[in-house]
Design brief:
The protein has 449 residues and is an alpha/beta fold. It has three domains: 5-122, Probable tRNA modification gtpase trme, domain 1 (Gyrase A, domain 2); 128-208 and 381-429, tRNA modification GTPase MnmE domain 2 (Four Helix Bundle (Hemerythrin (Met), subunit A)), CATH 1.20.120; 217-370, Rossmann fold (3-Layer(aba) Sandwich), CATH 3.40.50.300. The chain has helices at 27-34, 90-102, 112-119, 125-136, 140-150, 153-177, 187-207, 209-217, 231-239, 282-297, 358-370, 374-379, 385-406, 411-429, 435-442; strands spanning 5-8, 17-23, 35-37, 50-55, 61-70, 81-87, 106-107, 219-224, 257-263, 266-272, 300-306, 327-332, 348-349. A hairpin with a 5-residue loop joins β4 and β5 (61-70). α6 packs antiparallel against α7 and α7 runs antiparallel to α13 (385-406). The radius of gyration is 29 Å and the shape is flat.
């Protein structure tokens, strides 16, 4: 925190412009050593762009740039911060960076600007994590969820949980510390009810973890089924272009084909696989093995069958169990008519040739992701894996406290569970002073952010 840091904040490579950030107590003095304003009478006012040049130690011009100053605490990091916009060539950008470093700044670590923002109280830890979610968002829904978290919606929910826990813990510890005050023990029932409500609130947040994972990583959808059922045709239909080779010959697809697609705001990793059947041919056999591996990792399986063929004639896919895996049965070639053996069987009728039923299938895929999670749908709060671990710990401690109250356990033991729950909730927003935790979180950020 005592060092002045600098980094290129724009993506690597060649572009029209590049942005460099300098943050720390020496950021303005360093900038004044390397920057020469075109108008020597210009004042270094906050949030005002200055035109000038960057010069090296030999007073040679490196580049013509725009420079702006942000005075702490009214800056992203909470410190004095300087932003320099230079031309976007790789060499010139590096030259400007090297010049600033030679004048006293240090190259920033990944995420160090956001880490300083957190340590200076500009944002809580959930908001800092939302910055990375915002950068990596691949769909409009993921962007909205990241913005919701960046605005502090999750942090506010965690603060509400924390305040509820503090109020309950204060009552319990008051009863422990001041027994002579004769605090009404009948209040136990009221506390139990508050803890039950608290447990439900924590449980609702935990339920959004799966939506959070999908928004960040994508819903892994595997297209599976017997050979020549139209799996590759379905992949092409969902993508909107010819990605996979389509042929009447069974076994055309030998390897898995994976593409990212945006389905109504949900990022989907769509994987086409080889038709699963017993084969002796070496290459197709390897394709079948890879298909089975993908099935085990899938969030959702689209089981595609040729609906014109008798159900008994379609090869069974033994690796797919409707009891264990989330899957949708897809009856392809519906334009040619559905065989009587499929009457009454649940699934979606489509025709990849004519494009019918595809929209209905997309709706079901999206529904399988969002489910009936009203908390996520209304609030767009989607916790990540770290939040989930903390919430599950808090949930367990709260439920332990509820059971302890019902069993008449001494309040001293109940307060231990409540304190552990409070610590777990506090860790989500970064109230726990854990340096290793901060290092792990911010190490995944971009340098310059």
């Amino acid at each position: 925190m005592e060092d002045t840091i600098v980094a290129i904040a724009s993506p690597p490579g060649q572009g029209a412009v590049a942005i460099l950030r300098v943050s720390g107590s020496e950021s303005i003095p360093i900038a004044k050593r390397v920057f020469r304003p075109k108008n020597s009478q210009s004042k270094w006012l906050p949030r005002v762009l200055l035109l000038g040049t960057i010069v090296n130690s030999d007073d040679e011009t490196i580049d013509q740039v725009l420079l702006s100053v942000f005075m702490g605490p009214a800056s992203y990091t909470g410190e004095n911060l300087v932003e320099i916009t230079c031309h976007g060539g790789m060499f010139v950008t590096q030259a400007v960076l090297d010049t600033i470093i030679s004048t006293g700044a240090r190259l920033a670590d990944p995420g160090e600007f956001s880490k300083r923002s957190f340590l200076n109280g500009k944002m809580d830890l959930t908001q800092a994590e939302a910055v990375m979610d915002l950068i990596s968002a691949r769909t409009a829904l993921a962007l909205r969820a990241a913005n919701s978290q960046l605005e502090g919606r999750l942090g506010n929910r965690i603060s509400e949980l924390k305040q509820s826990l503090l109020a309950i813990l204060a009552h319990v510890e008051a009863y422990i510390d001041f027994p002579e005050e004769d605090i009404d023990p009948d209040a136990n029932e009221s506390i139990i009810q508050k803890l039950i409500i608290l447990s439900e609130s924590v449980g609702n947040l935990i339920k959004t973890a799966e939506q959070g994972r999908i928004l960040r990583e994508g819903l892994h959808v595997v297209i599976s089924g017997p050979p020549n059922a139209g799996k590759s045709s379905l992949l092409n239909s969902l993508l909107g272009y010819e990605r996979a080779i389509v042929s009447d010959l069974a076994g055309t697809t030998r390897d898995t084909i994976e593409e990212m697609i945006n389905l109504k705001g949900i990022p989907v990793r769509l994987t086409d696989t080889a038709g699963i059947r017993e084969v002796e041919e070496l290459i197709e056999s390897e394709g079948v093995l890879r298909a089975k591996r993908e099935l085990k990792r899938a969030d959702l399986i689209l089981t595609v069958v040729d609906a014109t063929i008798d159900k008994k004639e379609n090869e069974k896919i033994k690796s797919v169990s409707s009891d264990e895996l989330n899957h949708i049965k897809v009856f392809n070639k519906a334009d040619l008519g559905i065989h009587n053996s499929y009457k009454g069987e649940e699934g979606v009728q489509i025709s990849c040739l004519e494009g019918t039923g595809i929209e209905l299938l997309v709706g079901l895929i999206v529904e399988s992701c969002l489910g009936e999670n009203d908390h996520f749908a209304k609030n767009l709060i989607a916790v990540n894996s770290r939040h989930r671990a903390c919430l599950e710990s808090a949930h367990s401690n709260v439920n332990n406290a509820i059971n302890a109250f019902k069993e008449g356990v001494e309040p001293e033991f109940i307060s231990v569970d409540l304190r552990e729950a409070l610590d777990s909730v506090g860790e989500i927003v970064g109230k726990a002073d854990v340096e290793d935790l901060l290092g792990e979180i911010f190490s995944s950020f971009c340098i310059g952010k």
